Amino acid sequence: MLQVNVTRKADEAEGICSFELCAADGSTLPAFEAGAHIDIHIADGLTRQYSLCNDPRERHRYLISVLKDPSSRGGSIAMHEQVRSGQTLTISAPRNLFPLDSSAQLHLLFGGGIGITPMLAMAWELSHQGANFELHYCFRSSQRAAFVEMLAQTPFADRIRFHDDSGPQIQKLDASALLATPDAATHLYVCGPAGFMNYILDAAQNAGWSQDRVHTEFFAAAPIDQSANAPFEVELASSGQVFRIPAERTVFDVLDEAGIAIDSSCEQGVCGTCVTRVLKGIPEHRDKFLTVVEQAANDRFTPCCSRARSSRLVLDL
Ligand code: FES
User: For the chain, which end, N or C, has fewer CB atoms within 10 Å of the first or last residue's CB respectively?
Assistant: First the structure.
């Protein structure tokens, strides 16, 4: 855990605020990789993850950007309405669940709306490395587009394509055309709201892009129909203890109540913090974090939301 001061809070676009965070004791901050996020403890019981969007080679600050989402679970509203410049916050050290793949010869970055945030850090890093990349930034209207002026001043401005949904057809992103020919040396990185993600991912899938070259970061999982949930058991490999997981509860909840600690963060299957090894049994994957290939291996699952197809899972706990 780190103590940071909010040294600057700024309106970046309609409904979007950025927050500059510096170490409260004036020291340098832990280094971070492009794609990393931090947990911010906004209030008691209210922790949210935000991507770091500044140049990863900066050590004097972290920069995050937050979209005020009226349908959110409260985190973004609290960030906008309660967090003030000068305030001290507790944050986690950065963690990276959305890394760049250094084997790629071309990186195609797709940021939709506030999903531009991890792409900014990626673009800075790729620019430093002299790597080959394009950044596609899609937004609903110019009023809702953050960082446009800043991006125009960057050394990689010529690699950015802006796609304004409310603008002329010719500049809108045509994902099917752009991704029509899969390339083994090209990797895709996609972050944004669900509709945007599906648009890019469907185009990639239809064109035959291999899953291992498509990297995603979801903000939130779509609601899951829980009506057909069935109870099952989990066994802890270390102790042999067996727990019954009722239809209306998650593995994480049941184990947490029993004092079995599993790290968690989003609790909706998007961040990957809770991923746990499965030694026996078949999980029913409900997360958005593991790839299709990783899910098919059935050797890991996310206890915050996933369930079981078999009557028992033996977990490496
Ligand atoms: Fe985020 Fe489980 S806590 S995936």
Answer: N
Q: How far is the CA of 304 from the centre of ligand 1 (A)?
A: 6
Distance between CA atoms of residues 283 and 298, nearest Å = 6
Length of the chain in residues, anyone? 317
Q: Is residue 6 classed as helix, strand or coil in its secondary structure? A: strand
Q: What is the model's pTM?
A: 0.83
Give the amino acid at 282.
Answer: I
Smallest CA-to-CA distance from 38 within 114, 89, 113, 109 is with 89
d(Cα 136, Cα 129) in Å, to the nearest integer?
19
Ligand 1 atom closest to Cα of residue 287: 4
Q: Name the token pair of 190.
A: 């996609």
* Parts of the chain with a pLDDT under 70: 45, 73, 220-223
Q: How far is CA 222 from the centre of its chain?
A: 14
Per-residue model confidence (pLDDT) at position 222: 65
| Ligand 1 pocket, residues with Cβ under 6 angstroms | 264-267, 269-274, 287, 289, 302, 304
Ligand 1 centroid, distance to 114 Cα (angstroms): 21
Measured in whole angstroms, the distance separating CA 118 from the mean position of its chain's CA atoms is 8
Distances, alpha carbon 300 to alpha carbons 79, 170, 218, 283, 312, in Å? 33, 44, 19, 8, 14
The DSSP symbol for 317 reads -
